[in-house]
Automatic annotation (TrEMBL):
Pfam families: Ribosom_S30AE_C, Ribosomal_S30AE. One of its GO terms (biological process) is negative regulation of translational elongation. Required for dimerization of active 70S ribosomes into 100S ribosomes in stationary phase; 100S ribosomes are translationally inactive and sometimes present during exponential growth. The gene is yvyD. This is Ribosome hibernation promoting factor. It comes from Pseudoruegeria aquimaris. InterPro entries: HPF/YfiA_ribosome-assoc, HPF_long/plastid, RHF-like, RHF/RaiA, Ribosom_S30AE_C, Ribosom_S30AE_C_sf. One of its GO terms (molecular function) is ribosomal small subunit binding. PANTHER family: 30S RIBOSOMAL PROTEIN.
Amino acid sequence: MRYQISGKQIDIGAALQQHVKGELGSVVEKYAERPTEAVVVFSKNAHEFVCETTVHLSTGLTAQARNHATEIYAAFDGCADKMEKQLRRYKRRLKDHHRERAQPVELYGASSYILASSEESADGEPDSLQPMIIAEMETKVPELSVGEAVMQMEIGGAPLLVFRNEGNNGINVVYRRDDGNIGWIDPQNAK
């Protein structure tokens, strides 16, 4: 597995890098069959250290965890515990997903935009109906089954996931509803 361990405006020593490789490696190897890459980013927010970890699996799924603590090692250890809990919860489903799929998940390129918040005039109406784009990035849209999409959304800790449905090749969305259930938007089935 490849490791990318970095710090945002803080130095990461060799001892911390070895600790991260050892601990994260054992957690991921225990629950995921073939991890490909781990990205660990440390940063500082006021008096606390923040650790964000992303693990890319060979099946195309991505697991993410984030933790903060007053010490940098404690921030990573908490993040590794969260990652282990997520992977343990989905171990059976990850292995089943891997057996069914001979090839990794196919990813399609798409554009992602960040829009500026609307400027309102004195009467409460927006000045223009055209939003101002302040950032444009490329993102990937995976081709998954609905079950895999729900699992990817939950493992990644995302509020929603846009994906290409393997069943009908249409663009679909799964999202977490306010009542705790999962919503699924399938425009192709709308009549």
